[in-house]
Specification:
five-stranded antiparallel sheet
Length: about 400
Amino acid sequence: MARARLHPSLTVRLPSTLAALAATLLTLILLTPPASAQTLTVLYCFTGGVDGGQPYAKLVPDAAGNAYGTAGVGGNLNACPELGCGVVFELDKSGQYHVLYTFAGGADGVNPWSGLLRDAGGNLYGTTEAGGTAGYGTIFRLSPSGRKTVLYNFQGGSDGSYPFGELITDGQGNLYGTTYRGGPADSGTVFKWSKSGETVLYSFKGGTDGQNPYSGLVRDQAGNLYGTTFGVFNFYGTVFRVSPGGKETVLHSFTGGADGGYPYYGNLVLDPASGLFGTASFGGAHNYFGTVFTIDKHGNYSVMYSFSGGADGGQPNTSVIRDKADNLYGVTIGGGSFGHGTIFMVDKNGNETVLYSFNGTTDPATPDAPLFRDAAGNLYGTSAAGGQFGQGTIFKFVP
């Protein structure tokens, strides 16, 4: 199922060399020496051809300095002639880009928009938004040797349809996620997958309990799951909790006003001592440009920062990340000095700093994926647009 915001696919010859890529990338152990000034480096430009295009998902690093991700289009342009079926990729520690798997469409799956989950054995887990035996999406596993297994085919009924958010695990081999459609009211589900199959933990009714969860989940030590619903029409979305027994509690209902509205992609951030942190892509003090919000451990909701849509950025479509000093880092798809989005930081007191404004030339543009931060403080991300071919990028930012 193609996303409404997609750009036309380009059939461009994949560059034969990647000499311009950074020599060291994406590692929590092997660190890049900090630079003396803020710099952004484009590590890879997608062409929309066999290498994929329009990545909406975050990068997942391993201990050796390699990173893994998905591109929702490109790859096999014959099986999916409009845009391509999508790929799973690796950017290794030397900066070389490799396609690990190309989706074939149909029963194999189409459009892997979600981020990946990597286990201790190096297996990668993810979802495709569409495809599978019934056409409503899949859960898949990709082994280190490149062997792909479809773990579950969504049927489009009570089991859910069209998974978009990334998967999480409880460490016992069980996977948890959401679908933004399906269930009895066709308003989405929260599900659990185990070796015995898929179980729907909660089906949204489409009313005050929320509808259309595009984001993934976070899980606390007691097994409660937290997430957001996007909403539609006069419903501006929710923050919710689902207990291990399947009871849903709405922690906040967005009004679309000063509190924000339409929380979109990405997971919430959960800190047991502080509460939840997230973004809303709409609303806030400046009407349309979104917020960074928190719900404290007592359940109190507050807006930490409202974007104006100007130099400070606008429309944070995805989740934030948090450092040990309680600073939050994220991206916006609009605003900034050039109108093409920003990388920002919001401190624990709600003060925002724009770290970088995307310039709209060969820079990344409209980043929809969460960042990740290495131990040296460098930030890494993907953008769904921009770059040399307009099909998105992988980038590194040194503060």
